[in-house]
């Protein structure tokens, strides 16, 4: 649509899309639903779209993670156990995507996203109160499984990973949506950074348009995180449900379109 537009229009469009994407992503995940199509619309080839988006998203995630951590919403004792598994999973996912077509996961992911969205919508209490009672052997093992599997998924395919992380952390640790979002951001930052390094090594990042969008994603992440921390779980939950179902709807549309 904008592939042949003047450069200034491309930059302005990407900056607006970047701000909105990071704003939503900082609150409940799902920002890629906005940022990836934006890069495609200005004429980026697929691999450059993925690489440049990882560059922008990683910078936005850094801001969100820092602000959540500063507010005490990232659990360091849990993360120091889980993040190595996220790193391993993401590395395995990126290597696997070179061998297997990631589209094989679409039907499974679609069903899971619909389930997560519907369950969160109909269960009025889920994620509304923080019921975390401390770490134990069971929740650490389950957390490590979640970290590795979601790291792998993010490196291999990716859509909806924020929704899965937030939901998984709520169910395993009893977090509310605010605390779950903070810890999910730290895990997502780890998997994003792993993928970013590989894309950068292979020269798949277009910095000329990526940097302006990244600056606005940093701003969007700052505003979104600040609002999430201020308004709490009652504000995050409806956006979380909306983004989960929106990603599922997009995937369903693409499957029928094929």
**Low-pLDDT ranges:** none
Strand content: under 5%
Order of helices and strands: HHHHHHHHHH
- Determine the number of helices (DSSP H or I, runs of at least 4 residues): 10
Radius of gyration: 17 Å
Pairing-aware structural class of the strands and helices?
Answer: mainly alpha
The largest sheet is: none
| Span between termini | 21 Å
Helix content: over 70%
Q: Rough shape?
A: globular
Integer average pLDDT: 89
| Number of domain modules | 1
Number of strands: 0
What's this, in brief?
With 258 residues, the chain is mainly α.
Description:
The chain has 258 residues and is an all-alpha fold. It has one domain. 79% of the residues lie in helices and 0% in strands. It is built from 10 helices and no strands. Helix 1 packs parallel to helix 9 (207-231). The protein is globular, with a radius of gyration of 17 Å. The protein starts with 6 loop residues before the first helix and ends with a helix. The model has no long low-confidence stretch (mean pLDDT 89).
């Amino acid at each position: 649509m904008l592939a042949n537009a003047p450069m200034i229009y491309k930059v302005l469009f990407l900056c607006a899309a970047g701000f909105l994407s990071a704003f939503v992503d900082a609150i409940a995940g799902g920002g890629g639903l906005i940022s990836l199509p934006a890069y495609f619309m200005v004429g980026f080839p697929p691999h450059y779209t993925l690489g440049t988006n990882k560059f922008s998203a990683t910078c936005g995630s850094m801001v969100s993670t820092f602000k959540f951590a500063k507010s005490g919403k990232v659990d360091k004792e849990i993360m120091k156990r889980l993040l190595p598994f996220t790193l391993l999973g993401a590395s395995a996912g990126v290597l696997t995507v070179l061998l297997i077509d990631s589209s094989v996961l679409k039907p499974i992911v679609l069903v899971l996203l619909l389930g997560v969205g519907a369950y969160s919508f109909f269960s009025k209490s889920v994620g509304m109160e923080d019921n975390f009672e401390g770490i134990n052997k069971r929740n650490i093992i389950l957390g490590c499984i979640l970290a590795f599997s979601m790291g792998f998924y993010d490196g291999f395919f990716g859509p909806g990973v924020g929704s899965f992380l937030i939901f998984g952390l709520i169910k395993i640790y009893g977090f509310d949506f605010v605390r779950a979002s903070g810890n999910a951001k730290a895990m997502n930052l780890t998997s994003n950074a792993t993928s970013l390094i590989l894309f950068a090594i292979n020269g798949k990042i277009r910095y000329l348009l990526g940097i302006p969008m990244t600056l606005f994603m940093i701003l969007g992440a700052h505003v979104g995180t600040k609002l999430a921390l201020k308004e709490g779980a009652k504000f995050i939950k409806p956006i979380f449900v909306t983004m989960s179902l929106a990603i599922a709807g997009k995937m369903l549309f693409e499957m029928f379109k094929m």
